UniProtKB/TrEMBL annotation:
<dbReference type="InterPro" id="IPR023418">
    <property type="entry name" value="Thyroxine_BS"/>
</dbReference>
<comment type="subunit">
    <text>Homotetramer.</text>
</comment>
<feature type="domain" description="Transthyretin/hydroxyisourate hydrolase">
    <location>
        <begin position="6"/>
        <end position="115"/>
    </location>
</feature>
<keyword id="KW-0378">Hydrolase</keyword>
<protein>
    <recommendedName>
        <fullName>5-hydroxyisourate hydrolase</fullName>
        <ecNumber>3.5.2.17</ecNumber>
    </recommendedName>
</protein>
<dbReference type="GO" id="GO:0033971">
    <property type="term" value="F:hydroxyisourate hydrolase activity"/>
</dbReference>
<dbReference type="InterPro" id="IPR023416">
    <property type="entry name" value="Transthyretin/HIU_hydrolase_d"/>
</dbReference>
<comment type="function">
    <text>Catalyzes the hydrolysis of 5-hydroxyisourate (HIU) to 2-oxo-4-hydroxy-4-carboxy-5-ureidoimidazoline (OHCU).</text>
</comment>
<keyword id="KW-0659">Purine metabolism</keyword>
<dbReference type="Pfam" id="PF00576">
    <property type="entry name" value="Transthyretin"/>
</dbReference>
<dbReference type="InterPro" id="IPR014306">
    <property type="entry name" value="Hydroxyisourate_hydrolase"/>
</dbReference>
<dbReference type="InterPro" id="IPR036817">
    <property type="entry name" value="Transthyretin/HIU_hydrolase_sf"/>
</dbReference>
<comment type="similarity">
    <text>Belongs to the transthyretin family. 5-hydroxyisourate hydrolase subfamily.</text>
</comment>
Length: 116
């Protein structure tokens, strides 16, 4: 069985640069409600300095990554009125290897995919 982990990065597609300083929080979705697992800020490469989940801390289940893009775009002098927090819900299974969930965003739109 392949060990599993979770990482992310954020790209600012409006300016064509890595999005530095975006707060990324990871929530585990439980019956009683979401539980905050960890929170990071992206570095100059648009990545978090550490994985959101390591192989040691990985637990299968439903999670939500929340990206605070509104404050990022506001700090860059862009209209941040449309997108504030982008939430991406993912289901993670054990033995599926490395999960990488990038966010490509502008003040007006976003996309994601399962990266490598």
């Amino acid at each position: 069985m392949k060990p599993s982990a979770l990482t992310t990065h954020v790209l600012d597609t409006a300016d064509g640069v890595p999005a530095e300083g975006v707060t990324v929080s990871l929530w585990r979705i439980e019956e009683a409600g979401p539980v905050l697992i960890t929170e990071h800020r992206t570095n100059a490469d648009g990545r978090t300095d550490a994985p959101l989940l390591t192989a040691e801390s990985f637990a299968p289940g439903c999670y939500e990554l929340r990206f605070a893009v509104g404050p990022y775009f506001a700090a860059r002098g862009r209209d941040a009125g449309f997108l504030d927090t982008v939430a991406i819900a993912v289901g993670l299974r054990a033995g599926e290897g490395h999960y990488h969930v990038p966010l490509l965003c502008s003040p007006w739109s976003y996309s994601t995919y399962r990266g490598s």
